[in-house]
């Protein structure tokens, strides 16, 4: 990504660059009006292709060949190949951790130990700790995030509210951890040192995180989760179906250790899936007897393979648990994979015709003051997250476009790197067709429209960085040496 070339096109003006965006937003709005929550099932994906077709027409009339556009689409799809593989493995891992009892154990002990009155702020803190340790919001959601959403449902909290808490915490760590790819990328694009970048981010990030905790503490107090009935029945139903033991936590702990040791996420998730299958065979005789009928190798193998690829649903004596104890496996992630592919088609064509560069240049022209420069950077990151559907491009393209402008204003590079993270990294899960929005929605099983109002940390971060810019708070100037 650091060697990513920004495609320019002198033939394209700003109004032509905006045509595909206006067309896409209009079509998506009408599509959501017609299909409501079912829009994500396929029609939104086709609308993204239609938006790509509009962009291709604009490019054709501005002397960009179809081969050039398709080549760029191919490059974009190649860039998300790892993300797609991770998605498929997350699907298999969630199913393996369900049948092994790992997720039921997390829910069991979570219901027993976590005070419902402080569940939401606790979910934010737990997610931020895991994300800081792993450097990955995606891994956080795929492990502890799934369990926290399930626990929240069990104690009567709205799924969107819990997902918002998980995502808020997960992106705090993704933004601040030295292990995070976006943290390293933002500092590299702006030309500042990694730990200078992280230290400088604390000025805007810590206040945002504190406000987020306060909001979720208030939300916890306003929901009567402490009066949820049937807790003992829930625990009894889980114990009757699964063999609950603390040893099951060794599976997620080993996966987290692998990621902390900088093992490739694909390898870590595959290991987590295999460990989950082993744990199922060793610790869950009731599950195996229900589904495999015998303990012979062939039926057991067939059950494990069907669970991690096609999904599994486990019925308990408590009807409210049945929705929690189902997983789609790898096939359950195909809708999300489909969405990412179509988003990359639209983003690839927009980039190939020079529309992204033209929009960023237009925003840069408004940067006549320090605040205008910060505001233009934020707007550029948001625009590319909306159009290119990729948080890495939302860091790379504005980073390259605005680097010289910050120097010309006498601003230290950490101002740019912080703004890229405050607006490019954290807003990506708020957009349904962005790779991060599609991922979080698919993994947590909660639509973006359900959690967007509760992802407090994510939508507050850009406003915080603009507030600091407006009042000239902690805006470091270039030194004479620099």
Helix content: over 70%
Question: How do the strands of the widest beta sheet line up side by side?
Answer: 1-2
**How do the helices and strands follow one another from N- to C-terminus?**
HHHHHHHHHHHHHHHEHEHHHHHHHH
The low-pLDDT segments are none
Rounded radius of gyration (Å): 23 Å
What shape does the CA trace take? Answer: globular
How many structural domains are formed by the residues? 2
* Secondary-structure-derived class: mainly alpha
By DSSP (H or I, 4+ residues per run), the number of helices equals 24
Kindly, what is the distance between the CA atoms of the first and last residues, rounded to a whole number of angstroms? 25 Å
Beta-strand percentage range: under 5%
Overview of this structure, please?
- The protein has 2 domains: 14-79 and 334-470, no CATH class; 82-332, no CATH class.
- The protein contains 24 helices and 2 strands.
- With 482 residues, it is mainly α.
- The protein has a two-stranded antiparallel sheet with strand order 1-2.
- The model has no long low-confidence stretch (mean pLDDT 85).
List the helices and strands and how they pair.
Elements: H1 14-35, H2 43-60, H3 66-79, H4 81-99, H5 102-113, H6 119-134, H7 137-154, H8 159-176, H9 181-190, H10 194-222, H11 231-241, H12 250-260, H13 265-283, H14 285-291, H15 297-310, E1 312-313, H16 319-322, E2 326-327, H17 334-352, H18 355-364, H19 370-387, H20 391-408, H21 413-425, H22 435-444, H23 448-451, H24 456-470
Helix pairs in contact: 1-2, 1-18, 2-17, 3-17, 4-13, 4-15, 5-7, 5-11, 6-7, 6-8, 6-10, 7-8, 7-22, 8-10, 9-20, 9-21, 10-21, 10-24, 12-13, 17-22, 18-19, 18-20, 19-20, 19-21, 19-24, 20-21, 21-24
């Amino acid at each position: 990504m650091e060697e990513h070339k920004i495609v320019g096109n002198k033939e394209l003006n700003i109004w032509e660059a905006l045509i595909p965006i206006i067309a896409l937003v209009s079509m998506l709005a009408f599509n959501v009006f017609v299909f409501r929550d079912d829009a994500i099932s396929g029609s939104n994906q086709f609308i993204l292709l239609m938006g790509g077709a509009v962009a291709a027409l604009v490019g054709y009339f501005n002397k960009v060949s179809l081969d050039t556009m398709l080549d760029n689409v191919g490059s974009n799809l190649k860039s998300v190949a790892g993300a797609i593989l991770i998605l498929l493995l997350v699907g298999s891992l969630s199913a393996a951790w369900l049948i092994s009892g790992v997720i039921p154990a997390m829910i069991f002990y979570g219901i027993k130990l976590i005070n419902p009155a402080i569940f939401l702020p606790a979910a934010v803190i737990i997610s931020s700790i895991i994300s800081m340790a792993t450097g990955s919001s995606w891994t956080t959601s795929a492990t502890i995030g799934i369990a926290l959403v399930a626990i929240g449902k069990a104690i009567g909290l709205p799924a969107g509210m819990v997902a918002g808490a998980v995502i808020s915490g997960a992106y705090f760590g993704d933004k601040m951890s030295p292990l995070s790819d976006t943290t390293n990328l933002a500092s590299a694009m702006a030309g500042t040192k990694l730990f200078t970048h992280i230290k400088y981010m604390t000025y805007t990030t810590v206040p945002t995180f504190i406000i987020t905790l306060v909001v979720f503490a208030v939300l916890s107090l306003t929901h009567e989760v402490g009066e949820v009935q049937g807790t003992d029945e829930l625990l009894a139903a889980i114990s009757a179906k699964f063999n609950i033991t603390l040893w099951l936590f060794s599976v997620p702990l080993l996966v987290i250790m692998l990621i902390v040791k900088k093992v490739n996420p694909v390898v870590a998730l595959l290991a987590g899936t295999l460990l989950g299958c082993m744990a199922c065979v060793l610790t869950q005789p009731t599950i195996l007897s229900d589904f495999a009928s015998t303990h012979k190798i062939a039926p057991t193998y067939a059950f494990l393979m069907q669970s991690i690829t096609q999904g599994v649903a486990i019925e308990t004596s408590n009807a409210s648990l049945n929705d929690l104890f189902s997983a789609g496996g790898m096939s359950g992630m195909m809708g999300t994979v489909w969405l990412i592919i179509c988003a990359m088609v639209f983003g690839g064509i927009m980039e190939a015709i020079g529309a992204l560069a033209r929009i960023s240049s237009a925003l840069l022209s408004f940067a006549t003051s320090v605040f205008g420069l910060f505001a233009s950077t934020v707007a550029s990151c948001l625009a590319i997250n909306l159009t290119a559907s990729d948080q890495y491009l939302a860091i790379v393209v504005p980073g390259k476009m605005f680097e010289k402008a910050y120097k010309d204003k006498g601003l230290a590079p950490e101002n740019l790197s912080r703004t890229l993270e405050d607006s490019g990294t954290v807003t990506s899960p708020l957009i349904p067709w962005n790779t991060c929005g599609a991922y979080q929605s698919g993994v947590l099983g909660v639509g973006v429209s359900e959690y967007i109002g509760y992802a407090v940390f994510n939508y507050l971060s850009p406003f915080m960085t603009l507030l600091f810019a407006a009042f000239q708070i902690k805006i470091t100037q270039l030194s004479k040496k620099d």
